[in-house]
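Summary for the steering committee. The consortium agreed at its last meeting that each partner would contribute one worked example illustrating the joint modelling workflow. Our contribution is presented below. We chose a case with several input lines so that the handling of multiple components could be demonstrated. No manual editing was applied between input and output; the record is shown as generated.
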Amino acid sequence: MNRNGWDTADAVKATNVTWHHGHVGRESRYGQLKQRGATLWFTGLSASGKSTIAFTLEHMLIDHGLLAYVLDGDNIRHGLNKNLGFSAEDRAENIRRIGEVARLFADAGVITMTSFISPYRIDRDKVRALHEEVDLPFIEIFANTPIEVCEQRDPKGLYRRARAGEVKFFTGIDDPYEAPVEPEIELRPDRMSPPECATAIIAELRRREILAAPPPPR
Amino acid sequence: MNRNGWDTADAVKATNVTWHHGHVGRESRYGQLKQRGATLWFTGLSASGKSTIAFTLEHMLIDHGLLAYVLDGDNIRHGLNKNLGFSAEDRAENIRRIGEVARLFADAGVITMTSFISPYRIDRDKVRALHEEVDLPFIEIFANTPIEVCEQRDPKGLYRRARAGEVKFFTGIDDPYEAPVEPEIELRPDRMSPPECATAIIAELRRREILAAPPPPR
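What follows is the complete predicted structure of the assembly.
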């Protein structure tokens, strides 16, 4: 049947269709999508490679007919979180809201990636708890690029400006980065290309049955 | 090819895969999903039938292999918006955040339904503007059930409590409901069943090419 093969008599038969008073269950949703919803929470220093890996993975998944979406500064900072500043309270609320939105996306069945430095362990752990509360997978992915490499890359000149004192509270320079203690996935983006990192993540998602296993070789 | 037919040599070939520095374009995303992302914004009085219609439509779309998700009090009030109260400012912020999240879902390619009374025209129009700003369809759906019918239904006893003065600022009783001026879809849920309403919405989504047209009759 055509994937969108609506019965042309839908309108006529509509009165026989069941009324629904609640959300579609995750299992029927996941069965249709051939994937389970999950949040892949990337964390790491500025210029550690989080976004490039996330986008590379997003493209690989979409190309395979799967559903993935990246939440990042581009679509969050000027939208949902545009009314937040940089106070300690607002930074925590920033991560909380991103965590709540990721949870909604994961509940909808999307492989949801978040790409934010998210330097504080307590904020990440709260988002993990939000997911565990409703039995949704939370995969913390640590982009463990040494700060020396990040600082050498410095694509936006932010490290240079932080060293010069022009940017304050810059993670890794004058604000702490609290590395994950037991991340589900730890990457060394200084030693592997983004596609290699993305492929390693896919292998882990299969192992956790978030993605279906590949078909057996012919 | 299997929908999840990963090339088993992915890991080996990974170094030949392109690196990506940006989001997947909407067109490739929509091509895979066989639908365009859109926000269906239901508005109407308490007990007007918004949620039942939204859930009925969600089930119909998912059953046809499409991707739909309902944002409603259940998944928003105790999550993303749990730190909001009922002041005028917080009520506007409530709708703003829901609008921003719907926009993200629509951008991801999901047929996103929101089911909130959303009584003020200005708040709904701001959400409409957010969508127009980035060329995403915003379909305002007015569940135009007369208040007498809603009050007679009163499944949660809220109208009774509002009339007794136990609930204050209740929409339609002692707080205004501003009906949409030009909604994309106006329903009379007191005259049509939820499946009939859902079918009417599907017809409109096809007309707007958000959903593919049904296959021609054989």
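Chain B touches chain A through 73 residues (CB under 8 Å). Chain B has nine helices and five strands.
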